[in-house]
Amino acid sequence: MPVVNVRLANGSASSQQKKEVVEGVKDVLHKVLNKDKNWIHVEVTEEPLGDLIEIIQNARK
User: Fold this and answer.
1) Which pLDDT score, from 0 to 100, does residue 29 have?
2) b/e string for 10-27 if b means 16 or more Cβ within 10 A?
3) Residues with Cβ < 8 Å from 33, sequence gap 6 or more?
4) Is 54 exposed, middle or buried (0-12, 13-18, 19+ CB in 10 A)?
5) Is residue 17 within 8 Å of residue 50, measured between CB atoms?
6) How far apart are CA 57 and CA 59, in angstroms?
7) Could you give the residue ranges of the DSSP H alpha helices within 1-61?
8) Which residues, at least 6 apart from 49, have a Cβ–Cβ distance to it below 8 Å?
9) Rounded to whole angstroms, how far apart are CA atoms 61 and 47?
């Protein structure tokens, strides 16, 4: 199973935002790669920024 590491330098996020980032990355990769979401494992190793959530939301459209 491929692992995607999301690493950002700074910022803080709630656990809900972290969950949104993980699910968002899975959604976007699912859309791009046409693979089952269970095929993708996402690890957030730093606190994500709100900007990343906005990027993911735009990519989902």
Assistant:
1) 79
2) eeebeeebeebbbebbbb
3) 40
4) exposed
5) yes
6) 5
7) 15-33, 50-60
8) 8, 10, 11, 13
9) 24
Domain-wise residue ranges, the chain:
3-60
**pLDDT reported for residue 10:** 53
Binning pLDDT at 50, 70 and 90, where does residue 14 land? confident
- Per CATH, the number for 3-60 is 3.30.429.10
Q: Which residue matches tokens 């089952």? A: 36
- Residues across the chain: 61
20-40 pLDDT per residue, tens: 877 888 888 778 777 776 777
Whether 1 and 39 have beta carbons less than 8 Å apart is answered as yes
